Design the sequence.
C-alpha cells in the first residue's frame, strides 16, 4: 500500500519542528508498504489540495494525528479524503478521548474509518495489515491478551532513520540572515529542531493536563544507549550537511526520575553525543545542583518550565501544589549560572486570578534572568479532571470548544474575572514581554556573555512572539524586524566588527565552547 501520514497545521507557527509520531509510525510500518509524510505546518494544504494529492499519488490509506486544537481541521481534511474513497485512520490525544466523535457514533458526522486509541506503537502494524487485507476495524486499543490496557515498553525503540529522512522543509535558517550567522563560524547552512523522546509518562496528574490520563502514570524509558545512538546519528547528519541540529526532548517531564536522567546525561557526555537541547522539566526537580551541572555539560540550553501561576492558591486548585513560586527565582538563577535559560509558561484565567494578574506576573518575571515567558489560558481539554470539574459545575461556556477552535479564547468562565478580562490579561502578557524594549533589555542583560548567547535569546524571543502574534507572512516579519531595528543593529554591528572590551564570565565561556567544540568534532 501507499500510506500517507498527515499532521494538520496549527494555524499559528510554520515549520518549527516536525511531529515525532509521523516518523515513529513510519519506522514501525511493516515492510512492503511505502509511507509518505505531510506536515501541514511545513506544507500547507487545504481540503481540495489534499484530495487531489491523494488521487494523484494513488494513496491507499491515510493516517491523521492531531491535538484537540487542530481537530476541526483534521476532521475537514479527513472528510475530504474519505470523499475520494480512501480510508482514514485517526490517532492522537483527542480522538483517544473522543473516539465516538471521530467515528460519528455520537450523533455527529463520521470523520474516520478507524481510530487508534492511546499509544499506537504496537497497534499500528496491525492496522496496516488489516487495511491491506481490506479488514480495517473501527477501534484499535493497546490491550494485552486479557483485554487489559497495555502501555508499550520503550526498551525496543525503533531506529528512526534520521540520516536519510528529507528534512528540507524544516530548515529554520531564513536565507536573508545566513551571511550574519555564517560570521559565527562555519556550519550554519541549516538549523533544525528535531523531536526525540527518551521516556513517556508523568504521574503528577495536574488537573488541566492530558498526559497522566493518556500515557498513564507508569513512566517508561528508552535505554540510554538507544537515545545516545539517536543523538550521534543526528550529529553526524548535521556535520555532513554543514548545518546545526538541536534536539527537543519531548518527554513530558524529562527529569521525572532524576537518577535515570543523570545517568543518561552522563552517557551522552561520555559518548561525545552532545547537541544543543531543550526539555520540559518541572521546577521542583531542578533543585538538584548536580542535575543542572549535567544539563549544561550535556548541551542543555533551554528548559521549559510549567510555572503556570505565581499564586500558590491557583496552583493548589489545579493539583500543581508541588510548584513553589517562592523558589522560581532560585531555580532560574541556578540554570542561568550555567547559561541555561528557561521557557516559563504561565496560565491565566485560573480560579483565583483577578485583573492585573499579567502585570503582577511580569513584575516577577522582570526580576529573573532573561528567558522566554509564554502565556496561555486555562483550557478544559476533553477528559481531563479540569473538564469534568467545570462541566459538573455548569461553568463550560463552549462545551465542544474544539469544534470551532478559536486561539486564545476561554471555554469557561473564570471565578474572579470575566472571560474578556482574562483574554485582555493574556494579550497584556505577550505585548509587554515581547515589546521591542523588553527584547532589547533581555539582550542587554546578557552583556557579559558572548555574542552567540545574546543572538540566541534575541532569535528565540523573535520566534516565540509568533506564538501569540502570528508571523506567517513576509510583511509581518518585516514589521517585527523594523520594530526591533535598534537591537538588530547592535547585534549585527558586533557580529561584523566584533567588540573590543566585554566582561566575560569564565565559566559560561567554557560551557559554551565545550558544546560548540563537541558539535563540530565528535
Ligand atoms: C512536543 C509537544 C508539543 C510541541 C509540538 C511541536 C511538535 N512539532 O511536536 C509544542 C511545544 C509546540 C507543543 C505545543 C502545544 N501543546 Co503540546 N505536547 C507536546 C508533547 C510534550 C509531546 C508530543 C509528542 O511528540 N509525543 C510523543 C509521540 C510519540 O506521542 P503522540 O504524539 O501522542 O503519538 C502517539 C499516539 O498519540 C499515537 N498517534 C498520534 N498520532 C497518530 C496518528 C495516527 C494515524 C495513529 C494511528 C496514531 C497516532 O501514536 C503515537 C505513538 O504511540 C505532548 C505530550 C506528550 N507526551 O505527548 C504535548 C501535548 C500533545 N500538547 C498539548 C497541548 C495542549 C499543547 C498546546 C495547546 C499548549 C498550549 N496551551 O499552548 C500547544 C499547542 C501547539 C500548537 N501551536 O498547536 C497536549 C494536547 C492535549 C490535547 N488533548 O490536545 C499534550 C498531550 C500535553 C498536555 N498538556 O496535555 N506541544
Ligand atoms: S507536570 Fe507537566 S506533564 Fe506532568 S501532569 Fe503536570 S502538566 Fe502534565
Sequence:
Amino acid at each position: 500500500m501507499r500510506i500517507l501520514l498527515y499532521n494538520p497545521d496549527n494555524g499559528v507557527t510554520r515549520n518549527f519542528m516536525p511531529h515525532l509520531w509521523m516518523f515513529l509510525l513510519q519506522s514501525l510500518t511493516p515492510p512492503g508498504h511505502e509511507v509518505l509524510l505531510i506536515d501541514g505546518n511545513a506544507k500547507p494544504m487545504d481540503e481540495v489540495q489534499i484530495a487531489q494529492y491523494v488521487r494523484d499519488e494513488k494513496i491507499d490509506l491515510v493516517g491523521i494525528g492531531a491535538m484537540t486544537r487542530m481537530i476541526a481541521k483534521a476532521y475537514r481534511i479527513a472528510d475530504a479524503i474519505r470523499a475520494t474513497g480512501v480510508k482514514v485512520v485517526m490517532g492522537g490525544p483527542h480522538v483517544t478521548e473522543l473516539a465516538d466523535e471521530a467515528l460519528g457514533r455520537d450523533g455527529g458526522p463520521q470523520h474516520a474509518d478507524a481510530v487508534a486509541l492511546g499509544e499506537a506503537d504496537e497497534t499500528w502494524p496491525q492496522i496496516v495489515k488489516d487495511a491491506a487485507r481490506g479488514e480495517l476495524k473501527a477501534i484499535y486499543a493497546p490491550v494485552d491478551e486479557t483485554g487489559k490496557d497495555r502501555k508499550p515498553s520503550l526498551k525496543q525503540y525503533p531506529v528512526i532513520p534520521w540520516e536519510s529522512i528529507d528534512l528540507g522543509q524544516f530548515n529554520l535558517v531564513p536565507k536573508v540572515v545566513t551571511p550574519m550567522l555564517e560570521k559565527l563560524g562555519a556550519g550554519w547552512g541549516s538549523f533544525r529542531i528535531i523531536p526525540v523522546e527518551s521516556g513517556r509518562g508523568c504521574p503528577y496528574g495536574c488537573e488541566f493536563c492530558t498526559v497522566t490520563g493518556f500515557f498513564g502514570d507508569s513512566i517508561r524509558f528508552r535505554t540510554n544507549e538507544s537515545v545516545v545512538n539517536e543523538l550521534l546519528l543526528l550529529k553526524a547528519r548535521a556535520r555532513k550537511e554543514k548545518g546545526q541540529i538541536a534536539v527537543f526532548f519531548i518527554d513530558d517531564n524529562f527529569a521525572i526520575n532524576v537518577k535515570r536522567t543523570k545517568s543518561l546525561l552522563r552517557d551522552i557526555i561520555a559518548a561525545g553525543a552532545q547537541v544543543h537541547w531543550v526539555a520540559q522539566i518541572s521546577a521542583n526537580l531542578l533543585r538538584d545542583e548536580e542535575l543542572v551541572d549535567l544539563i549544561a555539560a550535556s548541551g542543555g540550553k533551554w528548559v521549559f518550565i510549567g510555572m503556570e501561576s505565581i499564586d500558590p492558591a491557583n496552583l493548589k486548585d489545579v493539583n500543581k501544589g508541588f510548584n513553589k513560586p517562592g523558589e522560581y527565582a532560585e531555580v532560574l538563577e541556578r540554570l542561568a549560572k550555567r547559561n541555561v535559560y528557561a521557557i516559563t509558561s504561565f496560565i491565566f484565567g485560573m480560579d483565583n486570578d483577578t485583573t492585573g494578574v499579567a502585570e503582577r506576573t511580569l513584575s516577577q518575571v522582570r526580576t529573573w534572568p532573561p528567558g522566554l515567558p509564554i502565556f496561555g489560558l486555562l483550557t478544559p481539554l476533553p477528559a481531563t479532571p479540569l473538564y469534568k470539574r467545570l462541566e459538573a459545575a455548569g461553568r463550560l461556556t463552549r462545551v465542544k470548544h474544539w469544534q470551532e477552535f478559536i486561539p486564545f479564547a476561554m471555554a469557561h468562565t473564570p471565578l474572579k474575572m470575566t472571560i474578556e478580562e482574562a483574554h485582555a490579561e493574556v494579550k497584556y502578557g505577550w505585548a509587554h514581554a515581547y515589546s521591542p524594549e523588553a527584547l532589547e533589555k533581555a539582550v542587554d542583560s546578557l552583556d557579559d556573555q558572548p555574542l552567540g548567547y545574546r543572538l540566541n535569546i534575541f532569535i528565540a524571543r523573535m520566534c516565540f512572539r509568533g506564538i501569540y502574534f502570528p508571523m506567517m507572512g513576509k510583511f509581518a516579519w518585516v514589521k517585527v524586524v523594523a520594530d526591533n531595528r535598534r537591537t538588530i543593529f547592535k547585534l549585527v554591528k558586533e557580529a561584523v566588527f566584533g567588540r573590543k572590551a566585554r566582561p566575560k564570565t569564565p565559566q559560561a565561556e567554557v560551557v559554551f565552547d565545550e558544546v560548540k567544540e563537541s558539535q563540530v568534532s565528535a
Summary: Residues 505-522 have pLDDT under 50 and may be disordered. The two ends are 40 Å apart (CA to CA).
